[in-house]
């Protein structure tokens, strides 16, 4: 196998980035050149291609507007597309026979239609039954889907914040009350605030943690309340008002249940 | 179980793809001979996933419609050059759709500030999927969708920024405020996980 080992070791780790289109042009060309001479990397890339094919399909599905079809077809063929092909005309051997043939044909047609309509009736019965089953199944599925959507909405909106173009990050450090604690906040004006923390002490009964946004205004602005899980972890998303002044820091205090308009309790986390 | 059902129902447009594959190749061959009706056939089978991918990338229905039109126009022009050995027509159409949509996204990003030439050069190549690309069943897609949901948030964010926004590894690192090496590792782990899920080994 004629491959350059150091080059191979360096480039093999780029296969995933290459397949995903995440290599900048120079690195992409270098990788493609290597690919041409390295069966191992070529096989690896091939094994990854179903992933990108599947990614193309994971987007939520929407029906294109009906008018788009005609627009697309007009644009490619330059003229309206033919509708269903016209069947060739039936030729008759003799015009004198025509009335008799017509009468015979209508008798045959009537008999055939009788049989046909009986079989249609039974098919319709069977189809109605299947439709009813499918409707019931779809209704049950919709209930489940609605539940799952509720669960996934929060994760989705956290993700939306993390990929926001105007993302700002603030790291918070534990204060003397909670030296082990640490937290990180991601904030986007357009999409809101994601807050994650770890090693927070449990809150005493009747108390809650409150997250504050520090701005150039003298008074901190409350972002919301949260309680950590038994391991002291939190991952929460908060809405922030669109006109929130630019945050310059964040802080977490412990406050009475229900929260307070301005901080009164000890600071547990501060980030500037 | 119901979740799987719901997902499979949602990706219903994929059902019957295996049977449609030969029909797609035939339609493309007819397009190569200039038969406009064949475009209608491909459109009816694939416009929905193409339009949906473009909406996901661009977040804009009007632009997504333009992308659909461009994809079919390009397929019409290039039908004669498309060789059946290159893989599934559906995957090719979706590759075109992603390229066109991401070109637009990049142009949109460039508009406010102006753009350097080397950024422009990242324009995606339109190479089709590899020769023996598999036809994906709706079950495969459901598996990937479920596996994406299970990925750690930053792994998933990195994958989505690369695939749906066309960002390079360095741009993703910037956006997520993560070291470049960390981002590369996250992407590798996520891609390998998704591959294994698809292959049914997980």
Q: How do the strands of the widest beta sheet of chain A line up side by side?
A: 5-4-7-8-1-2-3-6
Indicate how many domains the architecture of chain B comprises: 2
Q: State the fourth-level CATH superfamily of the largest domain in chain B.
A: RNA polymerase sigma factor, region 2, helix turn helix motif
* CATH class division of the largest domain in chain B: Mainly Alpha
Word description of this protein:
The complex is a heterodimer of chains A (272) and B (202). Chain A folds into three domains: 5-54, no CATH class; 110-156; 168-271. Chain A is 44% helix and 19% strand. Chain A contains six helices and eight strands. In chain A, strand 1 and strand 2 (182-188) form a beta hairpin. In chain A, helix 3 crosses helix 4 (39-55). The longest helix of chain A is centred in the middle third of the chain and has 65 residues, at 98-162. Chain A is extended, with a radius of gyration of 34 Å. The relative contact order of chain B is 0.11. Chain B has helices spanning 2-10, 17-32, 37-58, 61-78, 89-113, 117-120, 138-150, 153-165, 169-176, 180-199. Chain B has two domains: 15-129, RNA polymerase sigma factor, region 2, helix turn helix motif (Rna Polymerase Sigma Factor, Chain: A); 137-202, Orthogonal Bundle (Arc Repressor Mutant, subunit A). The chains are: A alpha+beta (272), B mainly alpha (202). At the A-B interface, helix 2, helix 4, helix 5 and helix 6 of A face helix 1, helix 3, helix 4, helix 5 and helix 7 of B.
List keywords for this structure.
heterodimer, A: 272 residues, alpha+beta, 3 domains, eight-stranded antiparallel beta sheet, 6 helices, 19% strand, extended, B: 202 residues, mainly alpha, Rna Polymerase Sigma Factor, Chain: A, Arc Repressor Mutant, subunit A
